[in-house]
Amino acid sequence: MVYKALTIAGSDSGGGAGIQADLKTFQELGVFGMSAITAVTAQNTLGVQGVFPLSAEAVAAQIESVAADLGADAVKTGMLFSADIIRTVAEQVKKHGWERLVVDPVMIAKGGAPLLQEEAVAALKEELLPLALVITPNIPEAEALTGIVIRTMDDRREAARRLHRMGARYVVVKGGHDDDGEETVDLLYNGSEFSYFKSKRIDTRHTHGTGCTFAAAIAAELAKGRHPVDAVATAKAFVQSAIAHPLGIGQGHGPTNHWAYRQYGE
Ligand SMILES: Nc1ncnc2c1ncn2[C@@H]1O[C@H](COP(=O)(O)OP(=O)(O)O)[C@@H](O)[C@H]1O
Ligand SMILES: Cc1ncc(COP(=O)(O)OP(=O)(O)O)c(N)n1
To answer: For the chain, what is the mean pLDDT?
Structure first.
């Protein structure tokens, strides 16, 4: 059995985030990866030097090509850039009946470059989020989507409840941006209870693409038919290993090591 996952996201020329991170992650987890590119970014470990969006028509055509022939066992979205692209992606997800959808609501790159137009946030909330099986905001993204200022774990839980009310069935509010303490804690809410995925916080600046990698690993595991909670557990272990065994390339925020989980395990 060949499991297939489709990523709908932006290209990162530096290879650490976006489509490139997603495809590497799919491959490492034994899933055949396919892509629909939403935007080309000129990007490296120092930052984003340019953003060149594709038309919504070009995005739809790529998705149609994949759906018409290969099909997808799970779909992941990343950088979607505009409201037009978001609406198109939502239409395509509904048209093809894709249930195992992971929405990583990418908004701003670590260096501060905007990867989603401000006016597209409403479309993300109204059109795409209700279709998501799993949504994976980091803390600033959860704040932008809910309007809650997140300082404590209680704030995070409240943001997760609101995101669940907006329609996402499993909400992961990631903890990478909460640099208090020795651990990073990703919180998962399924509409009735919370679970916590904890790991040792690694003191490093080489975390470029961690969010993409994490969400792609969830999508890969869902493609294999895993339960969302088990998919999140594997994704957390995968990203932890990728951060713990850095490649040491680039002059800025370096990429994570996508083959670490296979080579060294957790
Ligand atoms: N320094 C770190 N040590 C260990 N895990 C981390 C670290 N930074 C981020 N992570 C993990 O990487 C994933 C992405 O986290 P986060 O940084 O919150 O998202 P994003 O990359 O979207 O900003 C989460 O699973 C988080 O727990
Ligand atoms: C093309 C592209 N897509 C997404 C991101 C953001 O990736 P993320 O995993 O959140 O990592 P950082 O940018 O925060 O390092 C991106 N940079 N480029």
So the answer is: 97
